[in-house]
Specification:
Blueprint (H helix, E strand, L loop, with lengths): L13 H4 L3 E4 L12 E7 L20 H15 L6 E6 L5 E6 L3 H10 L16 H9 L2 H12 L10 E5 L2 H21 L3 H8 L3 H8 L6 E7 H4 L5 H19 L7
Antiparallel strand pairs: 1-6, 2-5, 2-6, 3-4
Length: about 260
């Protein structure tokens, strides 16, 4: 492949960056380069025709595709939650309160998806707009819900936030380790559903947090940026400190859901 030297100014073109980017599913990690680089894991809406196609129930004639689509959306939505916060508050005269705050956003989202009312399109403060009602109208129509699944499947990564951002001296080795751990934890949850909450509580690494959130290999994809080719004029001994600086900034700017505490 011919070498493409990318500009780091305001006129950087996507065509200059593309040769240094790689998109992989967990089943393609063997194709990752043995190179220094940055990587980011993203969620993928893992749904297909079986999840939305019209199928009439033999007992009451209802469209099973509606239930399957809403179930798929609810399952994927449940993966996105704000981790609990450990809080300590100081008061007067040595008073101190400490505890654990848990976000209720996931429960509110679950309730929103479970409601049968198309008119229930807000939380009472207008924060949801007409989105919930629009979703129910779309799901009620087989052609539209097929388009919904197709469009949601194309949104990553341009319209989704990274779940995790990391760097490595060897992308192939690091990502392979992530996937092996993810498969191990996924199998543990399949054998014992209670293991999912224990993984959330342990919160030791990316794979543990991903499996704890409900992500399976089919619901994830990773993008890598090969720094050895993109920044090939940077000496090897300076490249590591460079990518560590970049990772530090990216994580604090974007605050990935499955990032380290």
């Amino acid at each position: 492949m011919p070498k493409h030297k990318a500009s780091f100014g305001n006129n950087t073109r996507i065509t200059e960056i593309l040769p240094h980017l790689q998109h992989l599913t967990p089943y393609e990690i063997d194709q990752a380069p043995h190179s220094v680089g940055i990587y980011a894991w993203y969620s993928k809406f893992d749904a297909g025709p079986r999840d939305w196609k019209m199928e009439v129930a033999t007992d009451d004639g209802r469209d099973l595709g509606i239930e399957r689509t809403m179930s798929t959306v609810a399952r994927h939505s449940a993966r996105f939650f704000t981790p609990p916060l450990n809080v300590e508050v100081d008061g007067r005269l040595l008073e101190r309160w400490k505890g654990r705050l848990t976000s209720v956003a996931s429960e509110r989202m679950r309730a929103k998806l479970a409601t049968d009312s198309e008119s229930d399109s807000s939380n009472g403060d207008g924060s949801d707009g007409n989105g919930a009602g629009a979703l129910r109208k779309v799901v009620a129509r087989p052609r539209l819900r097929g388009e919904l699944v197709r469009l949601l499947s194309t949104t990553s990564p341009l319209f989704t936030a990274p779940l995790y951002i990391g760097v490595s001296d060897n992308l192939h080795r690091r990502l392979g380790s992530h996937v092996r751990d993810l498969e191990r934890f996924t199998h543990a949850v399949e054998r014992d559903p209670d293991a999912q909450s224990r993984l959330q509580e342990a919160d030791l690494n990316f794979a543990m947090r991903a499996a704890g959130a409900g992500f399976r290999p089919g619901a994830l994809e990773v993008w890598t940026l090969n720094l050895e080719t993109l920044a090939d004029d940077v000496p090897p001994d300076e490249l590591r400190v460079l990518i560590e600086a970049v990772e530090w900034l990216l994580n604090r700017w974007h605050k990935p859901q499955l990032g380290r505490r």
